[in-house]
Design a protein that fits this description.
Elements (H helix, E strand, L loop, with lengths): L1 H30 L3 H29 L1 H21 L3 H29 L2 H33 L1 H19 L15 H24 L4 H23 L7 H5 L1 H30 L5 H7 L1 H19 L4 H18 L8 H28 L7 H35 L2 H8 L7 H46 L1
């Protein structure tokens, strides 16, 4: 039962990430929310996912990977039940944070279970299957959520995840247990500092558009987040059993593959989360139609992981494949600056496919290549680190994308409240509609340009790290 349970858990977590974006306009109308209050529905989940994945991975090595997986599935289900029943946006935000913490445990413990159960080509195939299942979840998440929302409302779509989460927890009781030998105590200080640093930085990015970047609270939380992150790094160097071993970060090859997955996540998540709102508000698509349009982005993520790992197992250079994947993500994001409301689906078709292909190829090879470079007793920590980078990228990109969109909209429209409403998909009627649509599209173009350039810079860094890591490995051998 080990492999099937882990893979179904991965599907569920991936669907919960991609499908929620389609529900945002409906949730905003029902809960009378917009701006940061609404964006925390997605960002809160990703913040908790990013912060808790590293902690969950290290805990899984120490207390048991199956045990952490089961507890995480139960927490995940409880969070989705609370979201489905929530009467206000604030309660929805809290419930989504709970779900994100559960999702973190599912992914980190699941990855550690696979890494401890397989070796060599079998491990590559197992992680490729994990990537494929993540692709399935991402691919069907927007479409399934759109159909469920159209048929039963957004609350019904969240209730479905509750039931599946409980079934996964039940199935995991039949999986094989494993843990690291001679593992030290849990690094509580490092765990708390890491969570605090990400939370402070996320709050800064999400609340800055509403309060202003010069607001004392924004300046204070931003500085506090950076200082806390530095303290975390210092403590990790001195800890006997760190939640993130410095030697792991110092491994250039592992760090390069880890940054590769971060880069593709940055190029993928902003589009995944915010494009459905644009398609519904500006292009006039229904939730179901917007979900179907997102298949252009998500369907390649379903197909590419197994294709990529098959090529690697047949001797094709994994480094070459990841650089091609990164190039596609960069080009697709830059191409999305051609987005317009009149021919939205036509304009996004090619760039969405390019980004999806790049993301899917990355899913298939990055985890296996990275995990092959770490000791067996550190696979939980390594899996946690990989998924933390993904989660942190998702959380920070969502926050930064939202801040950029709303900030640019406010500058163009001259009204912060109106900008928040437009960013949430609520376009005015009458004479104001044209100006708001024009501002929405303009804000999208500039934000997308920034994402594309950031991915380009990170891709260059990834290429250098992977090349140096491979050269060092050859020299050592």
């Amino acid at each position: 039962m080990t492999l099937p349970v882990v893979l179904v858990g991965v599907v569920l977590v991936a669907m919960s990430i991609s499908g929620t974006a389609v529900a945002l306009p409906s949730m905003g109308r029902d809960l009378d929310a917009s701006g940061s209050a609404l964006n925390w529905v997605v960002a809160g989940y990703n913040l908790a996912f990013a912060a808790m994945t590293l902690v969950a991975g290290s805990a899984a090595d120490r207390v048991g990977r199956r045990r952490v997986f089961i507890v995480a599935a139960l927490v995940f289900a409880a969070g989705f039940l609370a979201t489905a029943l929530s009467p206000t946006a604030a309660i929805s935000d809290i419930a989504r944070i709970v779900s994100g913490a559960g999702g973190a445990g599912i992914m980190a413990a699941g990855g550690a279970i696979l890494a401890s159960s397989y070796d060599g080509a079998a491990r590559n195939r197992a992680f490729a299957l994990m990537g494929t299942m993540a692709g399935i979840g991402i691919a069907i998440g927007p479409t399934l959520s759109g159909l469920l929302i159209t048929a039963t409302g957004w609350r019904g779509s969240f209730a479905v995840f509750t039931v599946i989460g409980l079934l996964i927890a039940l199935g995991a009781t039949r999986a094989r247990e494993s843990r690291a030998s001679g593992a030290g105590p849990i690094d509580w200080a490092g765990s708390v500092l890491f969570i605090a640093a990400l939370a402070l930085l996320m709050f800064t990015l999400l609340e800055a558009p509403a309060l202003g970047w010069a607001h004392p609270a924004i300046l204070l939380t931003g500085i506090a987040g950076l200082v806390t992150l530095v303290i975390f790094g210092v403590i990790q160097r001195r800890s006997a059993a760190p939640v993130l071993a410095p030697s792991l970060v110092a491994n250039r090859g592992f760090l390069g593959w880890s940054l590769a997955t971060l880069t593709t996540s940055i190029g993928f998540l902003g589009v995944l989360v915010f494009l459905p709102t644009y398609l519904q508000a500006a292009a006039g698509l229904s939730p179901a139609a917007a979900g179907l349009a997102m298949l252009l982005l998500t369907a390649p993520v379903l197909l590419m992981p197994m294709l990529a790992v098959t090529l690697v197992n047949k001797g094709v250079s994994a480094r070459l494949l990841i650089m091609i994947a990164l190039a596609l993500v960069v080009a697709g994001n830059l191409w999305l600056t051609a987005l317009n409301a009149d021919d939205a689906v036509v304009a996004i078709a090619a760039p969405l496919v390019m980004i999806g292909v790049g993301m899917g190829a990355s899913f298939g090879i990055t985890d296996g290549q990275a995990m092959a470079l770490v000791p067996a007793d550190a696979v939980g920590m390594a899996a946690g680190f990989l998924n933390t980078l993904r989660g942190a990228a998702e959380a920070l990109v969502i926050a930064a994308f939202s801040a950029s969109l709303i900030g640019l909209l406010a500058a163009r429209l001259g009204d912060a409240d109106r900008a928040a409403a437009v960013g949430a998909g609520r376009i005015s009627t009458g004479a104001e509609a044209a100006a708001e649509l024009d501002a929405f599209t303009w804000s999208w173009h500039l934000t997308q340009l920034g994402i594309g350039l950031l991915c380009l810079v990170l891709s260059i860094v990834v290429g250098a790290l992977i090349h140096r890591g491979a050269a060092r490995s050859r020299h050592t051998s």
